[in-house]
């Protein structure tokens, strides 16, 4: 059986988004896929090759001033040659973000991450969860407590250390990793079957 390879390409200014990236990696590995954790502000040539070879890439960026961080934007612009060559076409993609406010305009960041993936002709995987914490009987400890659909979203107080990322948000990021791993297995297996049927 072919091992599914998934890269988690993230930028983290103060460590909070890295906590989420690590959670996504745990979800990927528990979902039976091989995970690669890559900080986009320190990519090596080998890291770029890992991105090119991956079956899926999960993008992560903090939300600063209503949008993705400058560090992630720098990475996005560095991919322009790959965009022109279509190197990431038909890979799966997903995304996650963190901000200091419960809204924080995180939807703008997730929209940017998905648009970035669409420009690369990738296939976006949504969070795949109903919203949590929206009934009187529900709890802030529900998965997807902030009610996002495009990707995993987290909220951490601006003056809190990285280890204080909310446990529900960490679990939601792990769910995203498992979901991407599951979808990637389906796609890789399906492509293998289709390739075999043409022989």
UniProtKB/TrEMBL annotation:
Pfam families: FMN_red. Gene3D superfamilies: 3.40.50.360. Residues 6-154 form the Flavodoxin-like domain. InterPro entries: Flavodoxin/NO_synth, Flavoprotein-like_sf, FMN_Rdtase-like_dom. This is Flavodoxin family protein.
